[in-house]
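Structure (tokenized):
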């Protein structure tokens, strides 16, 4: 079976391609903006890579919600239809009333909270994995010690 072309995360790949097309960027243009190769962009888009350390930079370049891009949670374009625009030259948010800007701040707070929750979940999973590895190692060492003791007694 050829594992090279199997998709590791097809949902991420689809969101990734949607984000790039939304930004009207070629793979090469996006690669240049975020500092990775066009081949890496292709692999992300085809699902050969599950995600990237550059996901936030990619989301910013594509002007989409980074939490949505990474996890599928939330809206792709959290600020659309809110009367808030981005100055393409400066990359700054322009327009909008205090209420609209308050909405943006609230949405950013939600995204940050979600990212922290995801980070903590990853840390818990890593700690569980380390604990399981230690238990297996301890059990293996205990089994070896028992075998050695039995061999010593039998000699």
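Design, position by position:
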């Amino acid at each position: 079976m050829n594992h090279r072309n199997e998709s590791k995360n097809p949902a991420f790949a689809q969101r990734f391609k949607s984000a790039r097309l939304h930004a009207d960027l070629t793979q090469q243009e996006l690669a240049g903006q975020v500092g990775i190769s066009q081949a890496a962009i292709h692999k992300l888009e085809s699902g050969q890579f599950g995600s990237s350390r550059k996901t936030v930079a990619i989301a910013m370049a594509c002007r989409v919600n980074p939490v949505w891009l990474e996890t599928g949670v939330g809206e792709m374009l959290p600020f659309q239809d809110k009367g808030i625009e981005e100055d393409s030259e400066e990359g700054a948010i322009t327009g909008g009333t205090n209420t609209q800007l308050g909405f943006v701040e609230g949405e950013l707070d939600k995204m940050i909270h979600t990212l922290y929750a995801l980070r903590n979940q990853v840390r818990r999973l890593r700690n569980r994995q380390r604990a399981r590895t230690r238990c297996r190692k301890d059990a293996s060492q205990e089994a070896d010690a028992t075998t050695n003791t039995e061999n010593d007694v039998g000699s």
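Reviewer-requested clarification: Residues 85 and 94 are 5 Å apart (CA to CA). The chain has two domains: 1-78, 83-155.
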